[in-house]
Recover the amino acids of this structure.
């Protein structure tokens, strides 16, 4: 069964949150990729944002990039593939990863390309010993 068909089955259950974790798999359909690290690093390098405003500015830029990169896929609706999450774990950014993913996945299916370790409900940035992780327990999701 292909990736698209597995996602269709997941979406058929009308999940509140639409998060698909891709571990070592490529989508079998064309979808726009948002390279989070590249996009946000470019924003930080070119914008003069005070440290006190950095968290809000990064969150706004992330949302802007997200909506600018959504692709409408037949039989799947609005989708986006996110990759290169490392910058979001930078403590000075205070980025609310889990809340943001839940919020945005209500409007579009988010494909997370994950190169770290994955268990049923947690994405570990490097390995299972990493303290940089994303909890998905409160979010509807599938791991493919």
């Amino acid at each position: 069964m292909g990736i698209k068909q597995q996602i269709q089955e997941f979406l058929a259950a009308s999940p509140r949150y639409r998060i698909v974790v891709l571990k070592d798999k490529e989508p079998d359909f064309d979808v726009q990729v948002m390279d989070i690290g590249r996009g946000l690093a470019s924003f930080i390098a070119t914008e003069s944002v005070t440290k006190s405003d950095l968290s809000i500015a990064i969150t706004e830029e992330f949302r802007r990039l997200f909506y600018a990169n959504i692709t409408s896929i037949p039989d799947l609706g609005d989708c986006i593939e996110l990759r290169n999450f490392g910058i979001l774990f930078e403590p000075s950014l205070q980025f609310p990863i889990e809340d943001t993913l839940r919020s945005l996945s209500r409007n579009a299916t988010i494909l997370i390309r994950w190169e770290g370790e994955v268990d049923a409900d947690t994405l570990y940035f490097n390995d299972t010993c990493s303290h940089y992780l994303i909890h998905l327990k409160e979010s509807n999701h599938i791991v493919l």
Remarks:
- The first helix runs from residue 3 to 12.
- The radius of gyration is 15 Å.
